[in-house]
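Q&A log
Question type: sequence-to-structure
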Amino acid sequence: MDRGKYHACTGPAFEGRRVSRGSSRGSRLAPLLAGLIVAFSAAGDTALAQASAPTPVVRQDEDGLSVRTAQGTVSVQVWGDNIVRVRRYRGVAPNRASLAVVMPRPAQRFGVATTAAGVEITTPALKVTVAREDGAVSFSDAAGNLYTREVLKPGDDGLAQSATAAPGLFSARQAFEISGSQAFLGLGQHADGAIDRHGRHVLLQQVNTDVAVPMLWSTKGYGVLWDNASVTTVDVGIPQASSRLVFQSEAARDIDYYFIAGADPDAVIAGYRRLTGAAPMMARWTWGFWQSRERYASQDELVGIARRYREMNIPIDAVIQDWQYWAPGQWGSHQFDPARYPDPKKMLADLRAMDVHAIVSVWPRLDTDLANTKALDAAGVLFPPTYRNVYPAGFGRWYDPYGKAGRDLYWSQVSKSMTPIGFDGYWLDASEAELGGDWGEMRALSTGAGPGAEVYNAYPLMHTTGVYDGQLKDAPGKRPFILTRSAWLGQQRNAAVTWSGDIHGDWEVFRKQIPAGLNFVASGIPYWNTDIGGFFGGQPGDANYRELFVRWFQFGAFTPMFRVHGTGPAKEIWRFDEPAQAILRRYVELRYRLLPYIYATSWRVTDQGYTMMRPLEMDFAADPLAHGLADQYMFGPNLLISPVIQPKAETRTVYLPGKAPWYDFWTGHRLAGGSTVTAVAPLDRLPIHVRAGAILPLGPVVPHAEAGANAPLEIRVYRGADGAFTLYDDEGDGQGYRQGRRATIDLRWNEARRTLTIGARTGTYPGMPRERTFNIVWVGEQTGAGVAVGAPASTVRYVGQETVVVAP
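Response status: OK
Response body:
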């Protein structure tokens, strides 16, 4: 050990001393735990690992500290004022690269001090203490108020030899204390009907309709990102009398997680996004209406669907070509069957002439005798035949996206065929790697990132990464877009929208979709949708199904991606009777009116780590009556959505959270916050409420999203509280927004002064109109209500300068 750099720190002179750690690499400080701490260099790790230390051994690093106990080593790294990483391992720290975390570890300022309990790291937002007894870590805010603490069994570091994992891997278990009343949200998509994870046992294993994302947060003001991609169980207060949050993973080299504190859930999720990557902007057209089915079987059929919508003057922006467009035996060739699709490039040109976009389904699975399959196999990036093949012989092979070589080769095969045709994005079906149809088979295989058991759940992240990176490279003028059936930590950085899988079209499934989607977005991945009407079942001529489809369609209009899909009978809008068609048209038109609000909110998702579809706990954590409501949510900052989830309903109960007033969107009637109301809900009405202080920008009904980009806006102001909203605009597609080609306008309502301030425009982009028209509507009883355009109280010709409008 270099005694000039490291030294033993003992004696009363060191008790309670606090040392600040700056960002300078030149300053080396050896902190202090009187009678217990011996600072050690990296060169001493191996010898110390072999020793059975009777007392903790501590080293301060530039990013935190490590504490070696008889049970192993715990490392605490500071990744931000409100973020720390905790690792627990045996021997030398495993050299494991995270698949999820992409943020470079930043230099941080923090303090280290000894306390009666152990050694403490402090940041402006956190106090993190490693106990002197057993190395257990506790987390408190800057004032010392406890968030949670690790719970360790005596003599147990949470790592155990695994009978099922590969050699060198452990099973990993970490428990945390749950104290006081708090709700937990996240962990991905699970159709158990609950919004609060408290009292739940959750299995995190990727399968069709179940999405594993090991990130959750508490209304107490913190979140845990469990950085482990193996099959994992999470118990939150199980059994009910338990006060423990327990993660248990079947394969691990160490225990590795990030603790993220936040004043509100948005701050926690923003911390998650800093670690794992921001959600990029998606093109304006992606926020419009999508039509799909399993499956459009020819070039003429796909183009004809778009043409029929245009002839009916129903807005639409995109159609989807689902699977089996290839010839028999050509699954994975990425080639269209010429008998049914004689000119795919013309097909896309015909769609584009109608201002309709298209994406195409590609699978990670390939028929065995294709040239693409053989090339992947020769490169060593194809999984071997599955060991429990329950499908008929010749079911195919699946590629391995865990290494860059596999991702690049697979994408080159896709791009060679699809990029010249002009598709605007990709539908990555079966992204859980179902292999032979027995979920979890991949755990027995090796991958480009290590044993399959260790990285199993990350398959959709790695698959979408290759396709996203490829789109950026080969189609730089477009914003990448991916629709996929599964997800894992960090997948938001790949412009991926996850849909809820192959679900059945019935009321019980519909009810469970709402909390399933809300928990998915609460996991930090903001974009989600569901097959409107369900994938299986459903006949437009059946009156009972027609009612379900209408209610589901209303809900779908207030999810990030508004998309109809299903197998069996076609479900385009004109397949339904005229009364149903009128309702469906109404909600498509409402969606298009809301596009300025939605597009601005999507920028907030990208820029601030915001979430568009929001469990009530996100905005009303201080209102206990808002917790646990599985069938209400916020869409953006201002709209409260309460889907009707019971057949034959004419009303539904709605809780209006918080203290500020609310407005009925359809009537303009003002209601008290914190109250429960019976909302009128005939079949044509989805209960929608708008919070007081809201500034709601609405555009005209246009045939496609880009047509309304520069149109006059109706600005509805819901008085009763102060409010603000930021309008956002850019070129609508491409990467210019990353280089600053964008513009924002801050709108502020001051209740006391009764003034609406339209701020000076910030920024510019090519094609930005010099002048905009804003029609101001003060919402009240039957004024500025519903889908119809409201009569403006005043009209502002806005040329980029601050303008103040005074309300009557």
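Response note: The first helix runs from residue 45 to 50.
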